[in-house]
Specification:
With about 140 residues, the protein is α/β, with parallel strands linked by helices. It has helices spanning about 10-25, 40-50, 115-130, and strands spanning about 1-10, 35, 60-65, 75-80, 90-95, 105-110, 135-140.
């Protein structure tokens, strides 16, 4: 499993939205991204922000994992860790949880400047390293 850490971000949600847009733009139409956001209010705002983000006039279909049509969406948001395989190889984890799941080949951890997120990110990094996962790290540098 490949784990990607993006750290030092001013706003991890904004950065992830641009990342998702770029990832889906470079991939084929049937690529999917799963996102784990336990807080329902945060996930609804994230869904709205992603839906509104449109630099390429492209369409990103996004829904919650319990939606009957979730299998057809490009982006699936989970509010719990009951992951269902919607053929998504990539999971973006906004929770404080360490993800151990066989459905995903790649997990992305966006870590902003919040002290709690930094501490959780360090714990996740140590765990994934102990599991001998392939870890990639990129620190945000202000331009």
């Amino acid at each position: 499993m490949d784990i990607y850490f993006f750290t030092g971000l001013p706003n991890r949600y904004d950065y992830s939205i641009a990342f998702i847009d770029k990832y889906l733009d470079k991939q084929s139409f049937n690529k999917k991204v799963s996102i784990y956001i336990p807080d329902i209010c945060v996930s609804e705002k994230f869904m709205h922000d992603l839906w509104s983000y449109n630099p390429h006039n492209s369409f990103i279909s996004i829904t919650n994992s319990n939606d009957i049509n979730a299998n057809y969406a490009n982006v699936i948001i989970y509010n719990d860790d009951n992951f269902i395989n919607f053929n998504s190889e990539l999971l973006i984890n906004f929770s404080q949880d360490i993800i151990q799941n066989e459905y995903f080949n790649k997990i992305i951890e966006f870590i902003d400047l919040d002290n709690l997120n930094i501490a959780c990110g360090r714990q996740k990094y140590k765990f994934y390293k102990q599991q001998n996962f392939n870890i990639n790290h990129k620190e945000y540098k202000k331009a």
